Amino acid sequence: MTTTMVQALNTALRDAMRADESVVVFGEDVGVLGGVFRVTDSLADEFGADRCFDTPLAESGITGFAIGMAMRGFRPVIEMQFDSFAYPAFEQVASHVAKLRNRTRGALELPMVIRIPYGGGIGGVEHHSDSSESHYAHLPGLKVVTPATVEDAYSLLRSSIDDPDPVVFMEPKKLYWSKSDTALPVRAPGLGAARIARPGGDVTFVAYGPSVPVALDAAEAATEQGLDIEVIDLRSLVPLDDAAIEASVNRTGRCVVISEAHSFAGIAAELVARVQQRCFYSLQAPVLRVAGLDIPYPPPLYEHLYLPSVDRVLDVVDQLEWDELPNRAV
Amino acid sequence: MTTTMVQALNTALRDAMRADESVVVFGEDVGVLGGVFRVTDSLADEFGADRCFDTPLAESGITGFAIGMAMRGFRPVIEMQFDSFAYPAFEQVASHVAKLRNRTRGALELPMVIRIPYGGGIGGVEHHSDSSESHYAHLPGLKVVTPATVEDAYSLLRSSIDDPDPVVFMEPKKLYWSKSDTALPVRAPGLGAARIARPGGDVTFVAYGPSVPVALDAAEAATEQGLDIEVIDLRSLVPLDDAAIEASVNRTGRCVVISEAHSFAGIAAELVARVQQRCFYSLQAPVLRVAGLDIPYPPPLYEHLYLPSVDRVLDVVDQLEWDELPNRAV
Amino acid sequence: MVAPTDERGPRGLLPSVSPVRFLTVDGELTELDEHGGYQLPPAERLATVYHQMVVGRHFDTEATNLTKLGRLAVYPSSRGQEACQVAGVAVLGAQDWLFPTYRDTVALVTRGIDPVEALGLLRGDWHCGYDPVATRTAPQCTPLGTHLPHAVGLAYAARRRGEDLVAMAFVGDGGTSEGDFHEALNFAAVFDAPVVFLVQNNRYAISVPLSRQSAAPSLAHKGIGYGIRSEQVDGNDAVALMAVLSAAVESVRSGAGPMLVEAHTYRMEAHTNADPVDRYRDASEVAEWVERDPLRRLERYLRAAGELSDADVQAAEHAAEELVTWMRPRMNVDPVVDPAAMFEHVYAEPTAQLIDQRDMVVAEADLLAGEDR
Amino acid sequence: MVAPTDERGPRGLLPSVSPVRFLTVDGELTELDEHGGYQLPPAERLATVYHQMVVGRHFDTEATNLTKLGRLAVYPSSRGQEACQVAGVAVLGAQDWLFPTYRDTVALVTRGIDPVEALGLLRGDWHCGYDPVATRTAPQCTPLGTHLPHAVGLAYAARRRGEDLVAMAFVGDGGTSEGDFHEALNFAAVFDAPVVFLVQNNRYAISVPLSRQSAAPSLAHKGIGYGIRSEQVDGNDAVALMAVLSAAVESVRSGAGPMLVEAHTYRMEAHTNADPVDRYRDASEVAEWVERDPLRRLERYLRAAGELSDADVQAAEHAAEELVTWMRPRMNVDPVVDPAAMFEHVYAEPTAQLIDQRDMVVAEADLLAGEDR
Ligand SMILES: Cc1ncc(C[n+]2csc(CCOP(=O)(O)OP(=O)(O)O)c2C)c(N)n1
Ligand SMILES: Cc1ncc(C[n+]2csc(CCOP(=O)(O)OP(=O)(O)O)c2C)c(N)n1
Ligand SMILES: [Mg+2]
Ligand SMILES: [Mg+2]
Predict the structure, then answer these.
(1) Nearest to C234 by CA among C24, C12, C14, C11
(2) Hey, what CATH topology would domain A195-318 get?
């Protein structure tokens, strides 16, 4: 049976709600409508309006309400309708969600998940395509998780709901309708373990979420130049699997980080900074980035120019200080 | 006459208000009280309650109100009382302040300044010591400026108020009471030009705001090891003076970035990423960071352990892959 | 400590007990006690409003068609809300400012904005297709409620400059739940800013019904909590809207402080073309509201009053057809996409970093264009 | 469309026209029409409240002293607001939850929290010095208004679990301007959460006077905009507070939905010890409020009513002295600073990255300790 990422997320929520009565789902339009992307489809039907319900339109309120429910034994899974519509909740997230456990020396824990559909590529009008993961990754106390495959969508969401810490679960909108034939449930290792999405020996691509398919396509295209590229799918930005990245780059000696978020001061910069520090003596070339442009996310007719593309990635691969490319070396 | 940074900022506001009637100052407690740090001291007296006034306690409202005033010809300079109390305004900043010019193809410009006292080191209780600059630097459309000296406090604030673009002006609380004997006004080049705070040939320290004195002290201390360290004070994070950093690191071959913000996915990571890309062949060692720990900013009794210290910087300098330290080489 | 009987006192701030109504569903004049003390607007103005509503309805239908043709990324229809949107604009002078949401494209067209420019956002051409300064119309706002403090700041600024300017800010029932709604109303009251807040309560926020949005007696009851006078009005009754909104604008213009008006209306279509509306509401509910159609109601009234002839109706239809005929071919042209344009207006002058990125994108595009040739 | 006469209708939601008052400034019983229909609370309860207020006042004075000794980073005094803070806690059961702000340290002590733990935040020892779960008291909240939605969520959650629990959330006049206040009240009403919102309107937000904060007839008038019943009360009248707040808690507990209570009071001291209060307010204003001192007022009333003897007063003073004597030496001990503690509880388990950072910090500290030796 073919499953889309949306369906996998939906199944993950359903299975989590079946497994644990304290899991509740709420947000804007998540009830009868099933969410604007249908991720919560029919949960209200199966579990009733007490366990899956709509709220007034107020993201700070939703987040603060979830904190309160978590303080009293629930495991809230809340939906922010789109990336930039989570911004009103920023204070709650930064000053409370991220800090409550620490502030209270562990007396209050917040096992809550904030689901945020993010990124571009779906032709959304302004404010519907931001990649806001870097903001969350910069706030200690949050875990930041993002799937790139249907299987991981299921598995990572289940792990996030099970996790005792607050998780910002970023769902790549562009991949919502991607498909897989794997039967659910599948469970991968918990949060913090990256995945080698494609093994290779010449270059390491580090990617996550919406950029993983771009990385894979670019790696495939690069075989024409005789390049054998490894693709790492991070799965979680916090905690980060340094070991997996380090091992790969120490083997390949070259690394490109791919991310849709604005380049400047984004998470890709962190990945570059870590790799050049940890793998300094292995590096044959600087660690390069293919990231979102440092402009407001453009209108639909322009977004193909904004997004990291296979061509742009290949151009950057060309800049990796090759004496001669492997295929020419044969 | 000795001037503190607070006084220099106050003089800058005063001079800007005298020079241009459209400059207005508002926020929480900026009127009669003169701001909790006295940066707006006596402005209400001199310019009247129409040009310097208190608002209700609502940072999103303050920011949105400033946008509206800027749309109708004013140049608002607004104060957020402390770093983390700007978080409620995050949506206004990210979705409007940063984007309005671009959204309207330049028809609406926003010559406004958001002043944010930031960083730690003053014994503040929780939520009073965040270094939030990385969030703003990650949002295209904003300029992000921060002084490290009394002179720059004046000069950069004047330039920020004159600027046609919205500027997030981050004031290092720790340096508010630092002093200088230079007479005001002083004007340095506009936004985007870094400053060599101390010339040197062995290592480049890249710092800004509250970390500049730490960098200078560490550079001084390192002379004991025979090290001659250059300190760059960035002054503005956006626009960034790549050229100044690049020229320095190409000379020194070694670079340490110092920043109080949380290390992970912070602005320091951006600086590291840029340096390793632009100066790859000059680098004798990985570019390292001394940044804020990845924990919620701790309580007053712990903050000395959190902040980049001279000792910590020197420890990192030791890790810069020296065959032998210069003084031993003599 | 409190002076409950001053001129801002409770009685003067609360809205009418039930929505002000001039027309029955059949377009007959209601009894005086439903008028809430407001005056019947002059017939010529109502005839103009009728004309604009007809144009608005046609425009709206055409925009919905354009989504089917793939010419718009998305379209949130104004159908059923034309009386609110047209009246909200009709009561403004040219110098006044309008602060619309994504839903209010009919208001833009009524404001005289070129319909193709008005559809810029939804076409995906640029974020705002018209010039806000020239049209005195802020960009349509998507993040809910966030434009309300802008309206307050702008109106206050204008008053400070001695300008005769009122800001009209639209917001939905859902939008009233956001923190920015609260902060904007409070600032408006504290700074005495000349703003009319018009809540188009169309009873849904996408799928979320009003009952999940608020437990208040009416959304207009929020005004008193800020010391803002408020009113509620039948939002499908163009006559009542014109009466209430012109009084509101006049009062605000005279310096009596901001006002909050709630218009009770209904979103006839789905939230947008992409919204499976049947999942969350009954066709029977929609049917009830067909009965209250604002256009038919006004037409009946004006005809009965002898203020609208067949020729007038035809003239309106004709003007609407013309507008649609004018916009259609222009909407069928693919907008020019200039890669370098993305980098303009990020700042007044691009930074060095942006110039590098622009050069990269332009080079890529040139290469691609070369390959295409 | 609207049912203005249902049980949530306007009349039932608005507060009394003027603040409910039982005691004159001189501690005499007011006329019945000032009681707003509330019952005089039982004398024993009032005597207990008196006792707690005395203890609270002494504690507050001691805390202010501790700042002078450098033992606290900062202290926002409760002086003048003891009636609000003590009554707000006195009406709660042990199972109920309190959501205090940074100002409400007297409330914490009344709640039975160890005063040294209550001062943890201000001492700089840790962000929250007490165990919120054991004490059913949320950490004192600094970001204004942000704890209010937590109170709503927690109270709703408890109701869902069938628990008999009311949440009492304190907020200042300034805090009511923040968006989170709005969102919290709206959620409380829509979800029928058992919460009492107690606004301590002490007429200042640091230096910002009430007139710059709100133009509403009273802050209690905000309730109706959410469909929340509201009341206003003299916040320096412990009898009125006990009457109104116990009725509020009872009503909320019975399932009648949330309530908003505004207590009109006054901040006698500066905002904190670091605040130059003379810059923005006249001593004469403060002098007026000395007359309304809540403690003296209650004492006079109880004495006149024969409910308070000299011995009772001495017992209260004695208890207060004991508390202060107990806390003083403990506050003079330097708290132990364990570098590794910073890294605990960031997550349930530290990440690999955090362990690296912890090891670095601990090594530095060890080195330093070695050097010190
Ligand atoms: C801050 C924010 N949150 C969520 C959204 C997503 N969203 C777009 S329209 C909408 C419903 C708004 O309802 P209402 O305010 O009643 O206006 P209507 O669409 O009915 O005109 C939502 C939730 C948004 N645009 N902004
Ligand atoms: C979101 C936010 N903005 C600003 C501040 C800074 N601040 C601390 S207390 C205070 C005044 C609050 O006044 P009020 O709510 O009336 O409470 P009071 O101090 O009078 O008890 C301000 C502005 C803050 N803590 N949080
Ligand atoms: Mg609506
Ligand atoms: Mg106050």
Answers:
(1) C24
(2) Rossmann fold (3.40.50)
